[in-house]
Probable membrane transporter protein
Amino acid sequence: MDVYLPIANLSVNGLIIVGLGALTGVLSGMFGVGGGFLTTPLMIFYGIPPTVAAASAASQVTGASVSGAFAHSRRGGVDYQIGGVMVAGGIVGTGIGAVLFNILAQLGQIDTVINILYVLLLGSIGALMARESIQTLRSERSGIPLPARKRRHHPLVAHLPMRWRFYRSGLYISPLAPLLLGVLTGILTMLMGIGGGFVLVPAMLYILGMSANVVVGTSLFQILFVTMATTMMHALTTKSVDIVLASLLLIGSVTGAQIGAQFAQKLSPVKLRLLLAVIVILVALRMSVGLGFRPENIYTVAPL
């Protein structure tokens, strides 16, 4: 079933794109993270230009985040105060990312930068996740528990001025910390098409020191609005959002997420985390190898 993608300017097999969306949906349902960080690399592997893949993945993440954000909101798992601060930072970061995106596109380096960012980000996060999972598994087998982590924010956060009290998260910190975290997430979302959840959730836990019961919901709340802003920014500035591509991905991801949620109930959280780490590292390795090969077709996406 061939489908023409007007922005990418190529024909693809629509069933394969739906399948890619379903695969990332399964992973999202299994691991509780957005599929954007895997959607973009998989589309690049299939032959979609990196700029179109990143911009279209952001719109798919928006749709995938809606149901999750509402579900966590109903059970009181969203800190709207700190989430609002991060959304404000994310929108600012989206603007900064748009400027960087256009500069790199004019220099003809945006595709390379997207690939390098994915290799660095996925490789480092995958290695940290694998290390933590292996340590936990060894601890379970030996019967010697790992030392308990104290839930507290990073020392750098403690020195920031103008402290606010975030009651739902149980924090008394400067709003500059979540604001800057939101800015960083906005920039990454604009450049890479990721939701940012796999970066945002660990940062909220270990840097801001947020309570675990509101981290995922607040992350989805922030991702929802920042990916909306990213999609609008791409549509207005880079004009790289392919609505046909995003729609096919969304059809697959909605179905895949339900299947992934069922798998998640049958595996332990530690083994799931280790499996996710292995997948992330393999994708990073594949992208690093791809950086060293000359593509068969040389292409670029530039404004007319």
